[in-house]
Amino acid sequence: MNKFKYLLLVFILIFKGCISERDRSFINVSYSNDLATEDGFDGRLLLMFSKNLKPEPRFQINDSKNTGIIVGIDVENWKPGELIKFNPNLLAYPINKLEDLPDGEYFIQALLHKYDTFKMATGFELKLPMDQGEGQKWNISPKNLYSEPRKIKIQKKTSSVEIVLNSEIPEIEPSKDSKYIKHVKIQSELLSEFWGRPMFLQANVLLPKNFKKTGLKKYPLMIFHGHYPNTFRGFRNKPPDAPMNDSIFNERFGITGYKFIQEREAYDFYNKWLSESFPRFMIIEIQHQNPYYDDSYAVNSANLGPYGDAITYELIPHIEKLFDGIGEGWGRFLYGGSTGGWEALAAQVFYPKEYNGCFAACPDPIDFRAFTIVDIYKDENAYYDEGEFTRNLRPGIRDGIGRIKAYLKDINRREYILGNNSRSGDQWDIWQAVYSPVGENGYPKPIWDKLTGEIDKDVASYWKENYDLRYIMERDWSKIGMDLKGKINIYCGDMDNYYLNNAVVLTEKFLKETKNPYYGGEVDYGNGAEHCWNGDQQNPNHISRLRYNTMYLNKIKKRLKLTAPRNNNLINWD
Q1: Is 76 part of a structural domain of the chain?
Q2: Count of domains observed in the chain
Q3: Which residue, of 19, 141, 196, 477, has the fewest CB within 10 Å?
Q4: How far apart are the C-alpha atoms of 255 and 249, rounded to whole Å?
Q5: pLDDT tens digits, one per residue of 285-325
Q6: Residue 16 has pLDDT above 60, yes or no
């Protein structure tokens, strides 16, 4: 062998070694020609590993100790036949990098979460996942491509795995109207202008007994805020089908037979709704899913657009005209839990004259000095509580007796792997998308670095002035206090799993110090109660969470007696 050939061989061996240790892809993904389009695909390509097949790996990515492993890559104009290479240096969850995946046998699955192109009113062109009628859930979103799970043996130094996306998630059939439940859909002019394409709002409407449109505006409107509802929930016109004593254990509530309880409560509500003496009103659940989350948080946002105005001034008046609603602020009430609790309070605060009371249960953080367990104004880092010689991880989820189940650092890392630029479709990213200004790249400006936790104080100041509900009430009380008097009611368990009670305590302190006028509402706590306690001191959480539509009626009745005009045409409201 001459010197030149020897040096060439050495170079090849060194080069191969570098590839195998640093840049070599040991998993390559493509998609079937049968699924191809002319333009190719944009999106987030996700690769998942699990030790169990049921459920599929795409349903095993979560914040629990039993989560699967996931890694992601952005793709643009991905054409058929093109291999996407997953190399060992890619960041992963819950492990650090793909190279940290232990050798062994796994069930593996890939999924492409497709992105559309939006030409925004902000002047930016963004790539985001359009909801396809599923409520912004990447693992079931129609038109997403995925591979069937398969069992493989991983040996990183020698393995070379080829995966082909060969299936497309089918479309979802829209829910059908029934005698009492109607589905109303409108194109929003405000949102369409913002997003640069037709955008829609929908409401699932529960109509009162014997409803017949007469032109007389006589029905109060109850707005039940919350996560994406495919149809009106908790209303059932027949007795339970589920067995009373099944053996299926509900881990959240520590009971069996929960499906029977849910069906029984839904049937009980149906019977109340049709009883002769029950108050007559409408209830709506709003579908306002968007490219960032399963709902908009019902406020105007620099990144999501004017959802607050669209809901308050486009959707709600349209429904009231269709079904003889009162059509004025004194006849509208807000309630909900968790995200819905924040939305109920936010809508009342930002539109104080348009609604006559809110009942906010276990609301998402309403005071950002307690953004769960982070003070975004004073803390330098969201993930660590740091001292001179210590650096302790901040918890993100606890159980009912305080045991930590997940840390903020890990929860946010999972979201980052699912989608950068606030595109995970999950909790911390939607807070960022709603509350933040538009960043230099057109996407929401991060409140903190997703990987390090370092807080951006300029963004924190923007959050404070625009979405810190306690601060905004305190700042503007002289202007809006009279319009909020008697309308604010907040409930939370003092062992909320996401530490939401911390912000409620701070907000209660302000409310109880209000003067000219005194706020005149209610703040109450469930002793030892977890998420989502909603003010019921008599029943356990697994019961009370099913009774939102009737829980606050006595309080609403008192409110109407104080505020409704004399000739109000209300039925069964005394």
Answers
A1: yes
A2: 3
A3: 19
A4: 6
A5: 999 999 999 999 999 999 999 999 999 999 999 999 999 99
A6: no
Range of the domain at 123: 26-168
Query: Which positions ≥6 away from 492 have C-beta within 8 Å?
Result: 361, 362, 363, 500, 501, 504, 525, 526, 533
pLDDT of residue 38: 82
The structure tokens 């049921």 sit at 54
Residue whose pair of structure tokens reads 């929930």 in the numeric block: 233
Helix (H, G, I), strand (E, B) or coil at 392: strand
Where b means 16+ CB within 10 Å and e means fewer, 436-449 reads bebbeebbbbbbbe
- How far does Cα 476 stand from its chain's mean position? 28
Q: Is 174 a member of any domain?
A: no
* pLDDT at residue 368, rounded to an integer: 98
Chain mean position to CA 419: 15
pTM over 0.85: yes
pLDDT score at 74: 98
Q: What percent of the residues of the chain are helix, what percent strand, and what percent coil, each to the nearest 5?
A: 30, 25, 45
- Contacts with 305 (C-beta within 8 Å, 6 or more apart), sequence order: 121, 190, 191, 194, 195, 199, 296
Q: What is the pLDDT of residue 360?
A: 98
* Last residue in a domain, options 168, 195, 210: 168
Q: Are residues 194 and 340 in the same domain?
A: yes
Q: Could you tell me which residue, 218 or 185, shows the higher pLDDT?
A: 185
pLDDT at 15 over 50: no
pLDDT band for position 459 (cuts 50, 70, 90): very high
Q: What are phi and psi of 531, to 5 degrees?
A: -65, 130
Same domain, residue pair 40 and 139: yes
Distances, alpha carbon 413 to alpha carbons 71, 364, 370, in Å: 11, 20, 21
Q: How many residues does the chain have?
A: 574
Structure tokens at 447: 């409140």
Which helix H or strand E contains 150, and what residues bound it?
strand 150-154
What are the beta bridge partners of residue 448? 455
Position of tokens 């492993």? 69
Q: Read off the tokens for 547.
A: 């009774």
C-alpha separations of 430 from 137, 205, 427 in Å = 13, 26, 5
CATH of the domain at 234: 3.40.50.1820
d(CA 417, CA 423): 10
Q: Which of 104, 41, 107 has the alpha carbon at shortest distance from 70?
A: 107
- 8-state DSSP, 15: H
pLDDT in tens, 262-279: 999 999 999 999 999 999
Average pLDDT over the chain, rounded to whole?
93
